[in-house]
């Protein structure tokens, strides 16, 4: 094999691609020929001069390709005798998968590709959000009403600001002025009591839940989970190795007494007190206080997911559980992605002072922090009053849209569906008789472009109720009316 | 206690804050009085008319506060007899922490605040990045040379684009055009072989390592870790419960034979083949092929962290290990945060096809995706040629800055320090005699505003070498010269 077979090269090189540098292409093809075994170890390669002439390339091009091949160890030059394919270690001379395995070589180990945790992650995978906006999609804000011009102006101002302060690394806990703006907003709007040092900026509320699961849960720890409850939280707890204990939700929210009977030593209680996801009920004061008292006695943590608390249509927003907490057991989580727009990716958590360090460490080890100029632009948006104004406008708009949906459902769907609590948030639940397969309705509705969710999917246990999650904030009244008619047809045909 | 003591209220209300709505302030103070036990359960409150007169507030203000108190369950109205503090469940009538615990009540459970994993996260916490740019800070690009005007123009264009397509949820795997641009770039610049479907957009290279640790490692699994090696990766593996096996690095990179002796059944080998972190050496082709062969036989995974491969000053960049992999064992990780600017927060991984689903599921469960308009702006930056031009400019600038640092070290520090490999990347290592305490030098240098790192910190085992990590890309030559003089003084005084 140690003879020159330079005549092979022109075939190998074949047709060149005019868009890529020629020396890169030559390099890649010769490398491929070595890896594929066309050129064996020790094989002598033609001189660069010969090659250049044979291939009609400049000598510099060929020399450049060979310099690279030598730098990477594919080719060695022996002074006075030319270039050779490297004599690499015989056992490892070629990439695996291309080598005929000898009979004595051990068979590849058999083990699963993923870890146990990885397999749980795949089992807990969230359905991808639909592209764009679907009518009835829960938690979708009115994108058509977002002040894009103001936002892009603020963003560009921050991105082009002279000086490089916003280009360097930001703090893992978040941009300090944004943390301060969030603390001030939460104190006045939500009754949250915290210093800005307790605020950690996130990409989404989900991230807050996931970080809490990682920082607070050991495998086997029990978690109170609202039944029905939020799938994303369920996935985060499960992939942290926790045991989920479903706790029923009634008109007063999570049944704390039931939780204390089922899992008195649970490590975390996950709750959505302002607007229970998905049922929409508000947790009563008695339950809130009972929950806090249990958490203190049990040294358990409460994750308060306040995901859409900005929108309450009857009366003012209910203050957060965090503000009632005298024992620092609450991790409060909220998001800008539903008030502003989903692709923004900014949210926050408020941690008890003792936990801040662990949350920030976990954040830094997992993904650092959100883009700093986006954080700075949001700070400006809040401090210049655009945020407050936008929330007020959206509250009025969403109330209108809710009324339109309720009216359309009453007209078109009528008694086939019982409309659940709808005095807050961005969606309502249309309850169906248990005999109706809500997942089938959701599938049929999706085929018609409707983004409804299935209530039964939000249950952990077997006694799931049937119903539809109907977002009313993302689409204008006429689209909702058309959607209600389509739903009525689907429900009618299922009953028939 | 069921008597009216309305006279107490004016004291409680005290001085109002002119900046907040009066009804909110009244609400907050009455709520506080109930929670603090000043008003006990069942306590009758004065009528709103009496209160308004006593406090000099409008009746509407007082009514609004009481409506809120009733909505939250603090106050109940009994028809015909007025408003009372609610009779909440006696055991839970007050927030924990403010209640004198009765002798019979069980003592609070004693358990650690954090999970075992949480404690490991705190132990593995990365030192925060310094604010701004420090001379010699490793991995800090030349922010002063970044084309901020172009970038802010592209960003604003994407943020104000008509229509709402970029406002809705993005895909968890990343913005599709960006994934396509990354796949094309990696194929031509790094020899990576992949379809765009294998690309997952991240916030940082660290996130890729952390996701891989979660998806691929079970507690107790062994990981080959370069010795010395990258602390962030070490933290990610440790917090996933892995056992780290330090594998020595020599002039040819990680010693694969040593790895096979120490931990033949390891689950992951973590390597930085293009420019070893921190030593700066390049892994030889023989080692690359040996690593791939082992990974295939052992059904192990290779994490190839190609964190600053864009910058090679002698010869062209060395192609990625991923491109040699015929058995789909490599998870390739790279970042834009060092080529563009650190606060951008965009990076990527290329997963073997079988693993993509798990990585995307883990991404969705943890933090969703980066802001979509930032991803779209980066796509434009690449496709309009700004990215390629910027890399070329920085390669020339960084070579100049490296030469300046090497020269300054030779002049000022001289034989007190041996300069390591410096033909690629963004930093070099200045090796010190073992008797010199590099951490002490780093501390003293930090006090003078220098951002050097300690080599000994990057070792897992006991036989750590002493040395300084010197970033040369972030600061201009004159600042580096001043820094070198300051270092020389520190080293001189340590020896003296």
Mean pLDDT level of chain A: 88
The total strand number of chain A stands at 15
State the low-pLDDT regions of chain A, or none.
1-8, 89-105
Q: What is the CA-based Rg of chain A, rounded?
A: 31 Å
> In percent terms, what proportion of residues of chain A is strand?
5-15%
Level of helix content of chain A? Answer: 40-55%
As laid out across the biggest beta sheet of chain A, the strand order is: 4-11-10-9-8-5-6-7
The end-to-end span of chain A amounts to 79 Å
Biggest β-sheet strands, sense, barrel of chain A: 8 strands, mixed
Shape of chain A: elongated
Q: What's the quaternary structure here? A: homodimer
* Number of H/I helices of chain A: 16
Largest interface: A-B, 136 and 134 residues
By secondary-structure content and strand pairing, the structural class of chain A works out as alpha/beta
